Amino acid sequence: MDFTLTDDERAVTEAASQVAGAADPWPALAEGGWLDILLEEERGLGYLGLVAEALGAAGVAVPLAGTAVVWPTLFGGSAGARRVGVADSAQELHLPPPSHRGGPDPVDGLLCEDGVGAEAVVVLRDGMAEIHEAFTAEPIGGLEGDGLALLRLEGPAVDRCKDADLVAEARRRAAALTAAEMAGAIDRIATMTAAYVTERQQFGRPISAFQAVAHGAARLATLAQAATWSARLACTSADPSDTSAAKGWISSASAEATALAHQLHGAIGFTEEYGLQRLSKRLRTLRFAFGDDRFHHLALGRPA
Amino acid sequence: MELTFTDEQLALRAEVAAFLAEERAAGSFTPRVDAWITGFDRGFTKKMAARGWVGLTWPTRYGGGGRTYVDRLCMTELLLAAGAPLAAHWFADRQMGPSVLAHGTEAQKERYLPEILAGEATYCIGMSEPQAGSDLAAVRTRAVRSGSGWLVTGHKVWTSLAQHSDYIYLLARTDPAAERHDGLSELIVPLRSEGVTITPIHDMSGAHHFNEIFFDDVFVDGDALIGTEGNGWRQITGQLGYERAGLERIMSTWALFEAMRAEVGDDERRQEELGALEAAARVARLLVFRAAAVADSGRPPDHEAAMAKVFATDIEQKMVEVASQWAGRGARTAGAFGGHLAPAWLIAPSFSIRGGTNEVLRGIVARRALGL
């Protein structure tokens, strides 16, 4: 076991941080070859996880899971720079009953991650997967920046994968990558919060002088470390239980981390101009993508 | 970055697993919660010592295994999961040996290390006093120069295993005039010395592992002082890192957790709760391994160890609470969860206290990881 990043890994982190700073990092991700790295490098998912951390820290939404992970895992080739959405029928992604979503009627369709603006979608079903290019994707996300769409297929699949093991592996990798993106976001809100409580003065001193505040910042720092290392393990281990541990725990911890960061920031934290809200929205979205806490905890807790 | 085990580490784990299977088959121990601190069995320790598993991280030139702290965790993870009796060597292996190695003279290393490595010397930790708990620098136990040695006078408390120990590794005040962090030193005191009185304290489970120790002009030779006179505070900070950065902080209740796993059944809510605990325990384990990796980089883990211990002990306590909820009224029965629930509940309050309270540790994280 070695917790130090190699020179290659540090280079990935640095390059990804620069790319993630762009308003739309997608063209730079494509030009930099990041979208095809799973096909080219044995440790591709490990590198992609570091890219996802940087994107998560920037709070920027791109369809990395569909394009760079799910597609190449299932179909062995590159999706190019196409933005690929993913609809997974196995993860209870069908719409909840009308009473839970406020709508009048059951709707026939699939929930699609990164469906808004998708140029192709991969639909994961029981032990098989399909690529669709003819579809409509109706944005239904409740939060700004959530690419969740109601997917209606309008033609036959253009390609199919019937290898159940590959479908399982695509799901696992997408969840691991999402965990890494969340870890990046949690790490950033922990850093922002530690800086804020040091700068913000009340009662004639920095609020970090109050033990309750300092302990809150310490808890956030701990959640950030825990998230980072569990996501990194998920992205570099082949064991699906490492992925479920990471995505399950991080999803659950993201709620605590977000609430704590907002509490310690006070009113400024939920203004539109301040950066925290973007990260907390992104975490809220990702918590329920590619298996939420409940989904992954059940995967770990079911008797073998 | 490589967060899975190397082949060498897997080989070590295979040896340890085979040893544990043999010992279990031979009935040499039965799995128990908290056995690393309450399972005193010198015979078991000697068997481990014979395999080179006591002092695994110590340099080979002093008879140790020359392996890394991460390697040690690879081994202790299996020992703790099995609920094996480790108390006879645990403190010496974990922190006293490393302290002597870091701060002792060559003569002291030759004097103290071989008997630990042979599994023949048990140490207890002489830190807390009635007025010095979380505020450890408030210790009043005095060591005063006397002829060629030292005279020790004072009162230590919450000393686990003193009744079985050969030595106490003592934090004492050697210069009462100095600023309180500067006047402290570390000494190794043989507990069979004249003037030492050990009295038991029974914990809420009725068990006796705590003790009070009174020192009344106890003479120790000059060689008892480890490291630099007056540097005890800085030395002990390193030792506390080793104390806090072990998997015993997440695996004290492992026997209970295994019983929960065996009894989870078809109830989805239970499966989800079990999975949440499993996920959190795996995350905690990584934080502990990370602290060990810091130790391997050449400095004692500090805020990394504090972080790991707070996080992990919180999960340990949750395990006990979730098991209690599952059992309902059955939680009151002696046999609940293989008989592990009652003892786990009785020791659970100590998880977030022993080795540094979580309040103190959060302060360490805030100060030293975040600079607050």
Describe the structure.
The complex is a heterodimer of chains A (304) and B (372). Chain A has a domain at 166-301: Butyryl-CoA Dehydrogenase, subunit A, domain 3, CATH 1.20.140.10. Chain A has eleven helices and nine strands. By secondary structure, chain A is an alpha+beta fold. The mean pLDDT of chain A is 93. Chain A has helices at 7-20, 26-31, 37-40, 44-58, 64-75, 98-101, 164-199, 211-236, 240-265, 276-287, 293-301; strands spanning 84-88, 110-113, 120-125, 128-132, 135-139, 149-153, 159-161, 201-202, 205-206. In chain A, the strands form two sheets. A seven-stranded mixed sheet of chain A has the order 5-6-2-1-3-4-7. A two-stranded antiparallel sheet of chain A has the order 8-9. Chain A starts with 6 loop residues before the first helix and ends with a helix. Helices cover 47% and strands 15% of the residues of chain B. The two termini of chain B are 29 Å apart. A four-stranded mixed sheet of chain B has the order 1-4-5-8, covered by helices on one side. In chain B, strands 2-3-7-6 form a four-stranded antiparallel sheet, with no helix packed on it. Chain B folds into three domains: 7-121, Orthogonal Bundle (Butyryl-Coa Dehydrogenase, subunit A, domain 1); 124-232, Butyryl-CoA Dehydrogenase, subunit A, domain 2, CATH 2.40.110; 245-369, Butyryl-CoA Dehydrogenase, subunit A, domain 3. The longest helix of chain B is centred in the last third of the chain and has 29 residues, at 268-296. In chain B, a hairpin with a 5-residue loop joins strand 6 (196-202) and strand 7. The mean pLDDT of chain B is 96. Chain B has 372 residues and is an alpha+beta fold.
Low-confidence runs of chain A? none
Shape label of chain A: globular
For this structure, the CATH topology of the domain at 166-301 in chain A is Butyryl-CoA Dehydrogenase, subunit A, domain 3
How much of the polypeptide of chain B forms β-strand, as a percent range?
Answer: 5-15%
CATH homologous superfamily grouping of the largest domain in chain B: Butyryl-CoA Dehydrogenase, subunit A, domain 3
